[in-house]
Structures
1.
Amino acid sequence: SYVLTQPPSVSVAPGKTARITCGGNNIGSKSVHWYQQKPGQAPVLVIYYDSDRPSGIPERFSGSNSGNTATLTISRVEAGDEADYYCQVWDSSSDHAVFGGGTKLTVL
Amino acid sequence: QVQLVQSGAEVKKPGASVKVSCKASGYTFTSYGISWVRQAPGQGLEWMGWISAYNGNTNYAQKLQGRVTMTTDTSTSTAYMELRSLRSDDTAVYYCARVVVGATTAFDYWGQGTLVTVSS
């Protein structure tokens, strides 16, 4: 089955740029979606189809996907961005969804 | 506005079954599917499967095959997830999420989650 690998944690100072990676075999050929989850809350979609933002998601959130790595970039990080972030793709061979293990973003 | 409202928390004994509901509103229920995702305490998201609200087709995660059944009631726009032979490691928050079946789309709306605790 398809595996997605994320770093367990990323730390960034307020106002700086955070980059959260999601590794997978030839992930650039797949559509990657990103979710933000704050403690005690349901996940929220922040990026879909690699780089599109749902309405209501700040422009500070952006995404890219190429080769074996997809990246979620958060510019001008704010304290409110502190959360767990998950990448997700569909495994086309089984039509099963696959989540990365999640990355805890800490704002210093 | 799209809403998915789930049933309340459950406490079950090992070996029992649990059935969680997810009532949809704000969109045409049969135009989408529902996926179920669970999250054990302190752990990541685990996809459980999906059901098409259009024709009832299902696709389950391999590790849950034989223990999970997903159904829908189109008359009430409600999806259900039943998990049988519960074990302690089934203790988790269970989420429903809207999805386009058969496409590589995202889970754009999520329910609030239902905590299922399995304990003797």
2.
Amino acid sequence: GAVVSQHPSWVICKSGTSVKIECRSLDFQATTMFWYRQFPKQSLMLMATSNEGSKATYEQGVEKDKFLINHASLTLSTLTVTSAHPEDSSFYICSAEVLAGGPNEQFFGPGTRLTVL
Amino acid sequence: GQNIDQPTEMTATEGAIVQINCTYQTSGFNGLFWYQQHAGEAPTFLSYNVLDGLEEKGRFSSFLSRSKGYSYLLLKELQMKDSASYLCAVKDSNYQLIWGAGTKLIIKP
């Protein structure tokens, strides 16, 4: 099956710093990648849809200047949390959609746990 | 608005069968997905239904009725490792995936 990697798997940073999370599709090209965040015991919340070569589409209530998304190639999308604050602490998960004529399910990366002190 | 409902939590016994229901109200329909998510991990794909009926995959089966806006995930011969959250998601007319809140399944020996 399709493999999506994320790096780092966990990060602890000080308040006010920026953190970059990478999402890579390892064995396929992903024209569309998705970024989610998930708080403990809650469901996935879509933050933005990232399309290769164009600006990301952000969901309502997600600050585009705070959560910078870059999808520079067909295998890499990055999420940068700028000026992180403790309330940004969460589990961030990326996924990529495989367009192969089938169900086009999303394959998820292992997630990045961000803790802001 | 768009809405997906599934029970918050269910409990079942090892070796038994459990059915997790999902009802949806979305603008259009382009398929329904079930994902499994263990605590602290990312979701993994379980099944996909786009036509009415039952899709069977080993111990897991998923059913869809588009006219009723209803699906269920059936898990047979439950094992302790099946303890996880099960997420129902529907692709709407814009092919956007709408997620349910998930059902936490607790398996007891």
3.
Amino acid sequence: GQQVMQIPQYQHVQEGEDFTTYCNSSTTLSNIQWYKQRPGGHPVFLIQLVKSGEVKKQKRLTFQFGEAKKNSSLHITATQTTDVGTYFCAGGRTNFGNEKLTFGTGTRLTIIP
Amino acid sequence: DVKVTQSSRYLVKRTGEKVFLECVQDMDHENMFWYRQDPGLGLRLIYFSYDVKMKEKGDIPEGYSVSREKKERFSLILESASTNQTSMYLCATGQLLMNTEAFFGQGTRLTVV
């Protein structure tokens, strides 16, 4: 079946440093979504990318979708303590006309103040 | 505001018990999903449903079944709970042809003893 891998599994950064998580799918995706899960919380949608090579920005967050639509990345500039949490990518793939989301393994970000 | 409500936040069950996890959404979404979340493995799809009485196996359906008798309610059933089913269970919902975000419930932490 489809697999979506993320690296790294854990990342500890000093506050103010940058952070990047990478997402790779074994199959071509129709879209990629990114979610953030705060400690003790549930995943919350951040953004969706649909087009090959697409780049989107949300303040300090930059999201990219690869040209082959099989990989993606999330980059956070100048991390803050509010960025703490686990970041998941989720690859969309059409299944009998309906979209099935396969989540990555997640990257857990901790910030050292 | 979308609400996805899971019946219990925490649950402790004995090995061999039949367990029902309930999920209710109030946004009239067609698609509903059950995931389990385990450290290092991310969110893995157990079952999903894109219509009443319709269900599709996800990536790890063994040991689980589901029921969708009404559009707003999606139940996950553990026929005979085992200790390896101790996990966080997350219900999610989304619209048909889901090129939009998934909305998650708060999660049920199930412990099987």
4.
Amino acid sequence: SQQGEEDPQALSIQEGENATMNCSYKTSINNLQWYRQNSGRGLVHLILIRSNEREKHSGRLRVTLDTSKKSSSLLITASRAADTASYFCATAMSGNTPLVFGKGTRLSVIA
Amino acid sequence: GAGVSQSPSNKVTEKGKDVELRCDPISGHTALYWYRQSLGQGLEFLIYFQGNSAPDKSGLPSDRFSAERTGGSVSTLTIQRTQQEDSAVYLCASSSEIEQFFGPGTRLTVL
């Protein structure tokens, strides 16, 4: 079963703009991870944030986590056409237990 | 080093046939996961192996599904008497700590 929801379900922006995707979840978590998927195949790990962290950065990515609201956001700055993909958040209740995925956001970056 | 590999890349089978899907995890990773991604169901956990512990089979949808992991490395997911609703992309992941690394998946089509 799905842990939560991402919103929006789909997002279309111009190259150079920022993209923000949100994720909500239902249960207590140990960590939350964001993944990217191109063409419906393999998932690429983007960034992990632990439950005791509030914000992390990696290159053009910024992730926030609000455990009181059970929500997270992924910000991609200065988007590029190559960022076009589906983005999923996934939560783990502890350590390396199986991930529970959201439904994903389809991002289209128009050149 | 090499990532997670899966074979075959694509599999087309007839309803009622058995299929075997293979996963080669990253060398040294103690945890191995199988997930399924299908239209309408999103990404869902199937089964999880951690070291020599008994696998967590709580995500398997029916007793037609089984998996084994030999020698703590390669894993095979077997689906017996396939049904059309088994059509999906089957993803394998491995991890040594928290971050999970995904393979490219096997697209299974049941006619």
